[in-house]
Amino acid sequence: MTDTRQTGGSGRNFTAAYARFVLKYRYVILLAVTLLTILAASQIGKIDIRNDPDTLLPADNYHVKTNAYVEEHFGMGNLMVIGVENLNGDIYQPWFVNKIVSIHKKLELLPSARPYNYISIAAKKVRYINGTGDGLDIRRLIPRNGISTSDPEEADELIQQLRVGLENNPVIREMLLSKDRRSTFLITDFDETIKGNYLEFVDQVNEIVAQESDERIRIYVAGEPYFLASMIHELRNHWHLFVLSILLVAVILYLESNCLRCALLPMIGVAISVTWTLGLMGLTEYKLTTMMILTPVLVFAVGIGHSIQVLKRFNEELLTHRNHMIAAEKAIARTMVPAIMAVLTDVLGFLVLFMEDISFYRAYSLFGQFGMVSLLLTCTTLVPILGTLIRLPIPNARHNVRRWEEKFGHWLTGIITGPAKWVPVMIIVLIVSISSYYVPKIERGINYAEAAFKKDTRIIEDLHALNDRMPGIISFNIPIIGPDVDAMQDVDLLRGINQLEEALREDPAIGFTTSLSQYVHLLNYKMYNDAPEMWVIPYDQQLVNQYLFTYSLGGDPGDLSIVTDYDYTNGQLLGFINTMDPAELHRVTTKITNYISLYRDHRYFRNSQLSLSDETTG
After folding, report:
1. 501 vs 71, which has greater pLDDT?
2. DSSP string covering 379-403
3. What is the pTM of this model?
4. At 404, is the secondary structure helix, strand, or coil?
């Protein structure tokens, strides 16, 4: 082999001993690498990409815990909105109403659906409410099977019922009807299992849209589940771009080396590391986001650089010694220390991310560290070993130096060693100065929709269209935790919720809120034949109890499930934000949090807990 005295230093002695060891047992190492690669490849199918937004914040974050509490008790944590626009008139057409009924029924069959939380003109819980001489007339807004087109007189009567029931109901009007009366909306809700079935979900939603679309209507789709599912859907549909980039790198390597075997060796080493990293993702069944696609791409990019450097050194040693075993030993020994230092730097960078108590960062850090460390075996070690087995051709003295490379090297050397060396220094200083000036202007937050999709895509167009037609498509929830049964019916508590809602609605970015308080307002208002001055919460506790009992008789106990639980122990305030600007979102969410802190100690909430306490959220 080689004379270890030539290497010098304890570090070189170690790397030389390592090189001799791996070359001596190269067949065992190759067998072990092959078996590990096969095992890793078998685990790739278990990769769980689910795009859970909760992984982007610490597990004990106030908003994450609040969302988990609301999801457990009320749902409404994974909302998707379908907007349907009549291109030729308003929504009060029998055929259009039947179209909504058909879409609603199909949406109820989606995986992980919570149909009892659906809100639309076709939903059972959305009622026609009107005052009569005997009390309140409460029934479904429209029949379950839609409007019969065979009886025009009955159809006209049902359309009029829909018009009156929707237009004269402030609690649901803004949520289900656009200002121009041409669009209505279906608000759907899904449980947490949707995050494991995103691909099936988005395929079924797109199929429903395709089935129901025609020249008379336009269907818009938005909401967190659909948006996050579409990201995975797009990733699946564009897998060929990653393959194309790999092929492009292989072509460049071949053109540079004029040797197919020399082009394949770096690709083999990197492919093994990428396979191991993906296999570890599947083996651990860690819940990942689409952002994790960055990990194998990064491993590929860094690994290719390491492999080329090792192969370059192998060819140089092969040119000098004209012996593949000696060339491999020297290539491994003399590149191992720089490789370890480079990988160590990468690992330290990933460790910084691991210190953050955010699931996404920790996953990215964990798998990134593994991928980087694996390069020491698959690239720095395995590439020279493979070079000895496939017997790379011995290059000639000028093989690795192209004419343009030599000219460029001489030109660059002349710049950095001559009088012109201050030019690149001044350019760097100028770039740093300009960058430093703009650092304070970095925008906080991110518009995830426009960051994930191009502005001219259907998803972004639908998002903006719905945001323009609805009071908002970004929802927020404020839980109210009661001490015992019927706590939510308390008149003082309802007044406190109402005051909080009125304060929130003064902000132009909050387009809509609803709560049990709004339903009590509505029932009192309808009892007095829509008299404006009766849009109030009665002081009479028994009257409030009677209103809610009467409302429950008109349907099922769960018809108020989006604002309270079955026994009225707990409730929630549900609202919608009508902006997607990151700075505005930060401002309005901060304002909501401040209002919660302000009202938490209000006398109206003395017997209940407004949102989760600091102790609960850590």
Report:
1. 501
2. IIIHHHHHHHHTTPPPP-TTTT--H
3. 0.81
4. helix
